[in-house]
Each structure stands twice: as C-alpha cells, then as structure tokens.
Amino acid sequence: SAVISQKPSRDICQRGTSLTIQCQVDSQVTMMFWYRQQPGQSLTLIATANQGSEATYESGFVIDKFPISRPNLTFSTLTVSNMSPEDSSIYLCSVFAGQNTIYFGEGSWLTVV
Amino acid sequence: AQKITQTQPGMFVQEKEAVTLDCTYDTSDPSYGLFWYKQPSSGEMIFLIYQGSYDQQNATEGRYSLNFQKARKSANLVISASQLGDSAMYFCAMREGYMIKAAGNKLTFGGGTRVLVKP
Questions:
Q1: Inter-CA distances, B46 with A86, A103, B58, B67, Å
Q2: Does the distance separating the beta carbons of A42 and B109 come in below 8 Å?
Q3: Which of A2, A3, A17, B19 is a Cys-bridge partner for B13, taking CB atoms 3.0 to 4.6 Å apart?
C-alpha cells in the first residue's frame, strides 16, 4: 500500500489568487495523477505527472491554469492559478502503487470566494 | 457515450443487510480493470476492491465482493452485512490499457451512488 499526504487539507481563497497543493507519498512511485471533484460531481482527471518529464494534461485543462511540478519520485505539486469560484472543488492526487491498486490522498478542499 | 454508468444515485439499506451497487462499463480495450472506491463525507477516496479483465474469479475483500459479468460489461459491488459506517458515496472506476504505462493507470469514474445505512 501507499500512504499519501496532501496539504492543505482545506483552504478558503480570494478570487484572482493562486494556491499550490502538495502531495507527498511514503514510497517512490513512477506515476502520479491529479483529479478534480467539483461539488456534487464525480472525479475528473486533470493531468498525469511523471518524474523527469512534463505533465500530460487532459482535454479541458491547461498548464497555465494548473501548473504541475514533479521534482522527485515521492512528491508533486498542483497549482490552481488565478482562481475563480468555479475552481471550488476537492483536488486529489493518486498514485499507482503496484498490485493493481491505485490509491488517493485525503483530498484538498478548496473554496474560492 | 458514458464509459462508466452507475444508475442508482442513492439508496437506503437496513443495517446488517446486504446491498448491491450497480456499475456498467464500456470499453473496446481487451485489458482493463475496474475499481470501487468509498468516499465518506470527509472527502477521502478509500480503495475497496479491484477486478481485472483477465481475472477468472470474482474479487472479494472482506465484506466486499464484486459480481463481474464480462459479457454484460457489468461490475456490481456487493456489500454484505451493512454497517452504519458504510454510509458514504461509492464510485465505480475503470482503467484501460496496461498498468505498466501511465495511460493504463488513468481512471474514468462513474457518477457515484450514495448509500445511507439505516439502524
């Protein structure tokens, strides 16, 4: 299994500002993924973050809005830039931990006012 | 077309009874996997069970079992002996392709089913 820690767990932000969410894993993993869950909705993949390469973004998500860093095999950050109320969501990172398991962090609840 | 469909937006279940949550999927990839996650009100996603497309037997994990009907493209979750702590949102998700590649670990989620266990 893998233990995944996210920071912050919750935050309230002013529109127009940016927030960086951190994801720390207790073991080295090749693949990390960032998801967004808007209120009352299901999860949608934002991007795939592999160490040593640029993140790969899904349709509808762009690097300028959601820049991602992956400096090593245990850590990644997602920044939500120039926030608007529509960005209010839970942001979750996930990792492939082997043995056919994909684990998620506890999520970061973001409210934009 | 929806890749993962959960037709039950919400359901009640009596404590100690079993409940079945429906999930149907759509893929043309011969290698795929199906996951079930539990999301309590705290927001975390808790991994419950996994079924691979090549697995011969239905997956089981404690009180959770997966009724995998490949020809019908369904992967229903069965929770036996429901407990009050089972009250949560449940998501079915699918990965497509081989897990050794990044694309094979991307998940597509269904809309979820909210379960409320009554005492």
A1: 26, 8, 20, 19
A2: yes
A3: B19
The string of pLDDT tens digits covering residues B61-85 is 999 999 999 999 999 999 999 999 9
Average pLDDT over residues A9-16: 97
Q: How far is CA A10 from the centre of its chain?
A: 13
Question: Taking the CA of residue A87 as centre, how many other CA atoms within 13 Å lie in the half-sphere pointing to its CB?
Answer: 24
Distance, CA of B74 to CA of B81 (rounded, Å)? 22
Quick one: pLDDT at residue B8? 95
B40 contacts B47 by C-beta, under 8 angstroms: no
CA distances in angstroms from A64 to A59, A111, B43, B109, listed in the order given = 14, 20, 27, 25
Residue B103 has pLDDT above 80, yes or no: no
* Residue A100 burial (10 A CB sphere; 0-12, 13-18, 19+): middle
* Least confident range of A54-63, A68-77, A95-104: A95-104
Q: Compute the average pLDDT of residues A51-80.
A: 93
Cβ within 8 Å, pair B102-A44: no
Q: Which residues in A77-94 are b (16+ Cβ under 10 Å) and which e?
A: bbebbebeeebbbbbbbb
Residue in A35, A100, A104 nearest the CB of B44: A104
